């Protein structure tokens, strides 16, 4: 009986604390500031025609006066059954240098009447894009895809950070 009372008392105390926390007003001076950053997300589609083994596409232009901070990338590929992707290159330009980031594509499932294989990739990253540039995405199949076209969708998200006037566009915010 004593352990039940302790359990009940503990539950009441924890519930009271949770209610008190929920009822606290938000503080305007909490110290959090996004520094003018704006959320950003985009999807780039790469269509690979039947008989080809590669394709590429560019994102929208990163607005002038803003640096793109990419925090997450995911990709889905639809390829002919048995086909594999040799490489997916994700290439933003930061500090004037374009650097490839490889996405590892993993088999997910076969679908559409046993015609296509689905491949996926996703994960957190910390990449940057300079103002006025594009993020380029390139896809290379392991072999030409014969009579079946392939499609790859690469999605990325993060934030656009304002560049300070007279200070260039720093890589960190």
Task: Report what the structure shows.
The protein is mainly β and 173 residues long. It has a single domain (38-162), classed as Jelly Rolls, CATH 2.60.120. The protein is 13% helix and 49% strand. The chain has 1 helix and 11 strands. It has one helix at 2-23; strands at residues 38-48, 54-58, 66-80, 85-91, 93-94, 97-98, 101-103, 106-111, 116-129, 136-141, 150-162. The strands form 3 sheets. It has a 5-stranded antiparallel β-sheet with strand order 1-11-3-9-8, with no helix packed on it. It is elongated.
**CATH fold field value:** Jelly Rolls
- What's the alpha carbon Rg, rounded to whole Å? 24 Å
How many strand elements? 11
CATH class: Mainly Beta
Architecture in CATH?
Answer: Sandwich
**Level of helix content?**
10-25%
As residue ranges, the low-confidence spans are 6-33
Lateral strand order in the biggest sheet: 1-11-3-9-8
In DSSP terms (H or I, runs of 4 or more residues), the helix count works out at 1
Instruction: Describe the main β-sheet briefly.
Output: 5 strands, antiparallel
In angstroms, what separates the terminal alpha carbons?
56 Å
Strand content: over 45%
Question: Whole-number average pLDDT?
Answer: 81
Structural domain count: 1
| Structural class by sheet pairing and helices | mainly beta
Element order, helices and strands?
HEEEEEEEEEEE
The global form is elongated
Descriptive labels:
mainly beta, Jelly Rolls, 49% strand
Brief write-up:
This protein is mostly beta strands and 173 residues long. Helix content is 13%, strand content 49%.
